[in-house]
Amino acid sequence: MSSSSSSSPSYEARLLSRTNLITNTSGIAPGYLQANLLILPSKHADDFHNLCLRNPVPCPLLGRTTTPGNPHLVEPPSCIQNADFDIRTDFPKYRVYQHGQYLSTRNDLLDIWRDDYVGFLIGCSFSFEDALTSAGLQPRHQKTGRIVAMYRSNIPLLPAGIFTGGSCIVSMRPYRPEDIETARNVTRPYLATHGEPVAWGWEAVEKLGIRDINSPDFGEPQVMEEGEVPVFWACGVTPQMAVECAGDKIDDLVFAHEPGHMLVTDLTADDLQSLGK
């Protein structure tokens, strides 16, 4: 397993997030796995856990808080190894939902946290971007300093409990057709962080139900160079779509990460096999 200390890159990234000194976390702390977030009342935790188990590609579960209301401990312990951790502050930005509607973005959740909340960490595709870069395929959004483009798709989620609707969010990185097989091979082992692409090519835009490649639902438009095609991966913003569809079935505030603003965990690519993913 990877190790974390008071000077590890992962811990330093979390401190920068806690003090709002970083936003877009793509490329931060190379080699460490990053995580998406969903926090909801404990009475809905089992339903959401089952949603993740039924939809492991868009919602790969990396960890969860150990006890309702405790924002400091996550299981498995390998996920966050430093005792100085707070799920309410260690993401750069948070989204707040009520009755399935997005309300606001906040820097922390300290003043609206309650003692019955449970947090879930979902694998993020930022985790395999270092491997893509090492293979000569650095993602375009890193080169241009933008947030990766994310789109609502028509890929349905399998239901679980109160989560009976919603569809998969996909992230997009442009590549030349001859590089797609390499991108697939590089990202395939990262099943704990979405794995290989779910679709690629211009025909995939219509197939996925994406209205306009230049108008992403989250993140920012990407610069497409001549001869490139869009390549789509499943995305950990997907749980937020499940919350939207649940609507009034959740009568309390629900929290998520702001897309592109992730938690840097203490897990590394070397831990993928031990995660059983």
UniProtKB/TrEMBL annotation:
Keyword Protein biosynthesis: no
Gene Ontology MF, one: D-glutamate cyclase activity
InterPro entries: D-Glu_cyclase, Putative_hydro-lyase, UPF0317
Organism: Aspergillus steynii IBT 23096
Keyword Lyase recorded: yes
Lineage: superkingdom: Eukaryota
Transmembrane annotation, as ranges: none
Gene Ontology biological process: glutamate metabolic process
Keywords: Lyase
Name of this protein: DUF1445-domain-containing protein
One Pfam family from the record: D-Glu_cyclase
Homology family: Belongs to the D-glutamate cyclase family.
